[in-house]
Amino acid sequence: MNGMLRLFTPAIPAAVAVGFFVSFANWIPQTHWTPPKKLALTADLTPAELARAGATIVRERGCMACHTMEPGAGVKGGGRGPNLDGIAARRAQGAAGAAANAVDYLVQSLYEPGAHLVEGYPNIMPPATGAPAKLGYEEVTAVVNYLQSLGGTASVKIGELPRPAVAGTAAAAEPATAPAVPAAAGGAQLLTDMGCVACHSSAPGQQGIGPALDADSIRTAAGERRMSPEAYLIESIVEPGAYQREGFQAGLMPADYGAKLTAAQLKSLVDYLLGEAGS
Amino acid sequence: MATPSARKGVRMLERSPAASAARAATVLIVATLPGLAAAQGLPPPTPDYAAPALVDSRLAVWVAAQLHLMFAAFVLAVPMFALFIEYVGWRARKTDPASARRHDWLAHEMASLLPIAYSLTAITGAALGFLLFTAYPRFMNYLSGVFGPTFIVYPLFFIAETLCLYFWYYGWERMQGERKWLHLVLGLALNVFGTVVMFIADAWATFMMTPGGVDAQGQLVSLYDAVWNPGWMPLNVHRLIANITFGALLCSGYAAYRFLLARTRAERALYDWMGYTGNLIALFTMLFLPFAGYYFGFELFAFSATYGVTLMGGVLSWLFIIQAIVIATLFIGAAYYSWLGLLRIPGSERQQAWSSVFNVLLIGGFMVWATPHTMAASLEESTGGFHPVLGALGVMAPKMIAVTLILVVLYGSYLLYRRAGKVITVSWGRTGERIQWSLVGLTGLVITALGIYGYFAPAEVRIQTSIWQIVVLMAGIVATFILDQFLMRGARTVADVQWGGMPGRGQYVLVALAVVIVWLMGLMGYARSGARLNWHVFGIMEDTSAGAGLPSLGEAALVITLITAIFFALLAVGFYISALARGEGADAAELESAGLLAEEERA
Asked: Which residues have CB under 8 Å from A209's CB, separation 6+?
């Protein structure tokens, strides 16, 4: 017994110290942090509905860790970033040397926050499309609507804003994400709605920014890849970086079609393209 | 499901030759560690997540990773200062043979803790590898694809370190005398290989926080940049220093127990000296730790300001208040032990009188350090402003003043300790002391002035002033330390240190410090991992598993305490086995050769 006492007595002050740390850690406010849930935002939402969704996004994605919402404080509130209250009114004319109106200014602030810095604030904001907020195109639209509502009126619908640039490519205007598409769209409509025709042509042998989508071109490319035309097309749509054809710039094709298309839409698109190719 | 871009990058890497090499290397790694044979046939990376254990896989990985880090820190740090102590002894072999033998004994005593700890490092590492590859197959496949070649190099250095360690420790007696230099070279090689092993593992860990060398889709562009990512060198520096503090305090804790269980005055003297040495090493390295931490923090902030917000003003801001309290316990505890050490020195009453003054200054400094910037418990609660009551007091400038002045105070108490039991005999002694203490005061004043200037300056300038504060501190320490060497030259010793005369409460403090540093390491491990929020690799691969997120700090504290308890339980068993192998206590011959006790006491 005495031996055990000699062993454990020296640990008593240590136990008291650790006990205090644990008690303190349990005494302070307890919050389980969970990743914010993605909101389902569809093209038929009104700007007002998008603004409400935007308010939730701004609150949940950490924007308020730096920005403040202080009525009457002007641009300089007490935060690390500019005060957001009244931002739409303040930026109705955009910013000198940057955007010409509030919407362009807000879009630029979200996509490229370092492009125009408010005087007195450091370049610390990460692009809203990157970590940790990782906003999708529709979510950016919602946030822009919300910010518009702070001193103005929400007015933007999904599809009206420019999309973020593809990192590391010369064609900055190219879409980084695939547009949202109606669930019931057929192959031909999908080809248009998804913006494929902006880069691809289905005219025989006619190369655009991307490879031609006519029958011979698809079969030739599939043969080079040693895959069936169906498998080749699916891979090219879902995972465009998996195989890079010579003569075409890498990284231009959006990589998220696989996430945006349903299985039925993908099949419809492949069937259409192969049907066209076969006809 | 991972994000589309990350999935694309992951798939590319899974198909690449580098990924195949990495998987082969992975097999090589697990083959070198026990208990992982089952992982050699890695499953195809179809699922993103799996549940390999009965408990929550996130919790299992957390516990295994933290235990592995702690044992690894111990086995990396102890050889560093043990080798240094051995070298000091070797240098004194002709001028002071008793001191040489005593230092050699101390180095060997510290090294004797290593073999068992090394086995525990390997076992916990194997458990961690098994859990990671089974619970997070897609993530580990991605990491293997990026770091393939390092997965081949790592086990080679690991084996080299193992060989050096066992030859170094078990060859101690055989490589005495003429062959001592060979033993020192072996110890140096052990430290070099160990450091390389840590640096490689740091590359994997920091890549998850500050990924480099990959494109936006996560595809590897440059392995060099992936290894030398923005957080790599800061973490290397921080871990090197922190590991030494960690290892030294654990050795001190061990010495404290041996002191309390000692049966003879001579044994107590030896372990008193060992505890003192460990605490001195820890205090010395603790001077640099806050700056290493800030260096790491600056790099994280430069990589993404989000880290700064998450850690200091967002969801983890309360954690850093806990950290300040824990570090305060550590600093004040280590200083208190040093002040208690004055009781070993007869005639040191003049120096002892200053202890309470230093204590008040330290507590005041830590109160400023623990002042929060914001009191947010979550990102949603974050206001972006200052603390509602304390206002701007919680910002960087006053904290930097406080932490730097704390170090000035600690250094001042060290200068006083050096004077205990001694009388300065140089003719210019009084003037020299005035100059010396004026320089210490001036250092404190300049540090404060720089901090006040930085408070009103923009953030970029403020960071610069904090660097200048460190420069001023170092300059002040170096200048006064050099002056002190001349001042104390020929100083008359009026009272010898009475080793073994340390009060029992001093040993309790050492045990507490060992536990507190382990708990602190657990806390900071959680902070480093938690700062990524829901990202396996920040900005590249999102954590989309069911349990993604952070526990409350209360729950985290309980898990950290559990980890601390497991660590000490394993360590205690290991040390017990080690003691069984070496026989009970230090033998009489070693004690006699130690030269710590006066002749009459030994008689």
From this structure: A171, A174, A198, A199, A200, A248, A249, A252
Name residues 14-43 of chain B within 8 A of A (Cβ): 15
Name residues whose C-beta falls within 8 Å of residue B469's C-beta, 6 or more positions apart in sequence.
B400, B401, B404, B447, B450, B451
Q: Tokens standing for B123? A: 């076992």
A71–B contact, CB cutoff 8 A = no
Query: Alpha-carbon distance B175 to B173, whole Å?
Result: 5
CB A68 within 8 A of CB B385: yes
> Within an 8 Å CB–CB cutoff, is residue A4 touching chain B?
no
Task: Quote ipTM for the complex.
Answer: 0.83
Closest of B190, B124, B188, B198 to residue B163, by C-alpha:
B190
Q: What is the DSSP letter of B287?
A: T
Give the bridge partners for B387, in sequence order. B391
Chain A partners within 8 Å of B8 (Cβ): 239, 241-242, 255
Phi/psi of residue B423, nearest 5 degrees? -125, 125
Closest of B514, B512, B515 to residue B565, by C-alpha: B515
Task: Count the helices and strands in chain B (H runs, E runs).
Answer: 23, 4
Decide if pLDDT at B384 tops 50. no
Report residues of chain A scoring pLDDT below 70: 1, 165-185, 205-206, 208, 215, 276-279
Residue B272: per-residue pLDDT: 92
Q: Pseudo-torsion of CA B339, B344, B346, B351, nearest 10°?
A: -10
Nearest to B276 by CA among B86, B497, B34: B497
- Verify whether the Cβ–Cβ distance B318 to A11 is below 8 Å: no
Only one residue has tokens 């080749």, namely A232
At residue B587, the pLDDT reads: 57
Name beta bridge partners: B391: B387
User: Phi, psi at residue B537, to the nearest 5°?
Assistant: -120, 115
Phi and psi at residue B585, to the nearest 5°: 70, 175
Half-sphere exposure of A114 (CA within 13 A, CB side): 8
Of B452-461, B503-512, B583-592, the one with minimum mean pLDDT is: B583-592
- What is the percent of chain A with per-residue pLDDT over 90, rounded to a whole number? 18
Question: What is the Cα–Cα distance from A119 to A127, expressed in whole angstroms?
Answer: 19
Number of neighbouring beta carbons within 10 Å of residue B255: 27
B423's enclosing H/E stretch is: strand B422-423
Q: Which two tokens stand for residue A194?
A: 């998804």
Nearest in space to B324 (alpha carbons), one of B278, B387, B373: B373
Tell which residue, B518, B52, B113, B65, has the closest CA to residue B282.
B518
Residue type, A92: A
Q: Which residues pair with B220 in a beta bridge?
A: B214
pLDDT of residue A53: 93
Q: Could you give the angle at the alpha carbon of B82 between the alpha carbons of B78 and B85, nearest 5°?
A: 150
Is B376's Cβ below 8 Å from some Cβ in A? yes
> Given this model, what pLDDT does residue B379 score?
47
Average per-residue pLDDT in chain B?
83
- Using only C-alpha atoms, what is the Rg of chain A? 26
B378 contact A CB<8A: yes
